[in-house]
């Protein structure tokens, strides 16, 4: 006797997203956002000054990119969002792509298996990249995204060059010294 159309009651199949995976994903997102620095520290006017030369500018870029990397990512993502506000279809496509990237590449703990074949990270990366590029070309917002990315890169580099770095690692060094003394 067949049971077409009935819901199976056995739980031997593994769900796509179990509660543990969701909680791990939430924790990773929270940990990533916790890495952002206070915006007041980032835009403190007392620490803005042009560098004295190219070596100092290069040193500032390296230190500021490392220190404010999450803040810079948020700025660029906001610029991308605003560049797509006039293209709601593209915004939906980009949102779906972000979730696909998150769940298939960034927050995946186990390798992907299709028909008992294990797919390596490199293949997943190439496939997701190709799909992303094709969908961006199909939605006709490639120039908007490139413009937003270039604008974001320019703003990030300007800030990274102008923001002095003398105060950035004092808090981390003090915390490290405090931990060592305890």
From TrEMBL:
Keywords: Membrane, Transmembrane, Transmembrane helix, Transport. It is a multi-pass membrane protein. The keyword Membrane applies. One of its GO terms (cellular component) is membrane. Pfam families: PRA1. The chain crosses the membrane at residues 68-85, 91-107, 119-139, 145-162. It is found in: Endomembrane system; Membrane. Residues 1-20 are annotated as: Disordered. GO terms for biological process: vesicle-mediated transport. The keyword Hydrolase does not apply. Residues 1-13 have a biased composition (Polar residues). InterPro entries: Prenylated_rab_accept_PRA1. Belongs to the PRA1 family. May be involved in both secretory and endocytic intracellular trafficking in the endosomal/prevacuolar compartments. This is PRA1 family protein.
């Amino acid at each position: 006797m067949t049971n077409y159309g009935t819901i199976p009651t056995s739980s031997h199949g593994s769900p796509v997203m179990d509660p543990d995976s969701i909680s791990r994903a939430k924790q990773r997102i929270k940990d990533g956002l916790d890495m952002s620095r206070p915006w007041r520290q980032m835009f403190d006017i007392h620490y803005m000054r042009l560098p004295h030369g190219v070596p100092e500018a290069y040193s500032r870029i390296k230190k500021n990119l490392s220190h404010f990397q999450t803040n810079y990512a948020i700025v660029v993502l906001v610029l991308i969002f605003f560049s797509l506000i006039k293209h709601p279809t593209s915004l939906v496509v980009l949102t779906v792509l972000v979730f696909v990237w998150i769940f298939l590449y960034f927050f995946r703990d186990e390798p992907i298996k299709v028909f008992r074949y294990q797919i390596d990270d490199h293949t997943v990366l190439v496939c997701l990249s190709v799909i992303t590029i094709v969908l961006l070309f199909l939605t006709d917002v490639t120039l908007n995204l490139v413009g937003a990315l270039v604008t974001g890169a320019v703003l990030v580099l300007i800030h990274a060059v102008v923001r002095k770095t003398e105060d950035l690692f004092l808090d981390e060094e003090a915390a490290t010294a405090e931990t060592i003394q305890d």
